[in-house]
Amino acid sequence: MIKKAMKLLTAAGVIVCMLMGMAGCGGSESEMTLESFISDNPEVGEEIDNQIESNDLCDISVDYDKNCCIVTMKYKETYEGNLVDQISEAIESQDEALAESCNESIKLIEDESGISGISFKVVFLNGDDTVLWEKEYTGE
Fold first, then answer.
1. What span, in angstroms and rounded, lies between the C-alpha atoms of 77 and 57?
2. CA 75 centroid distance within chain
3. Which of 113, 6, 102, 115 is nearest to 51 (CA)?
4. CB of 40 within 8 A of CB of 33?
């Protein structure tokens, strides 16, 4: 599951950069946000959606809020008790790898687009929508 998140984050960064270059970014860099770019260029969102591989275990979605790309992985089942703690700990143990993937994608997008202040937020939800783990990466 963590590897899927890292693959999706890396793919999203590459796709956004490629399509920003082809689209010429439209608008001035000072006005442009990641969210407005995706909104103005729906083909970018479609390409990223094509990279999403939901499976029997979870559904994956990607949303944008200003300069934040939010990747949400929602388990199809609702876990309880010690299993919730174990899942959260397993995700936390991969924080360094997630940070590396996110920070590489952020740097790539910022360098290619001229947009600064981009962040990636990774959220894991239980089947009942309670947060199991979340963290925002700012490229630092």
1. 8
2. 16
3. 6
4. no
128 contacts 35 by C-beta, under 8 angstroms: no
Residue owning tokens 């924080």 = 95
| Alpha helix ranges (H) inside the chain | 2-23, 34-40, 42-51, 82-92, 95-113
* pLDDT tens digits, 95-131: 998 888 888 888 888 887 788 899 999 999 999 999 9
pLDDT tens digits along 3-57: 555 555 555 555 555 444 444 444 444 578 888 888 887 887 777 777 776 678 8
Q: The tokens of 90 are what?
A: 């397993």
List the structure tokens of 129: 């929508």
Measured between alpha carbons, how far is 59 from 115 in angstroms, rounded to an integer?
A: 29
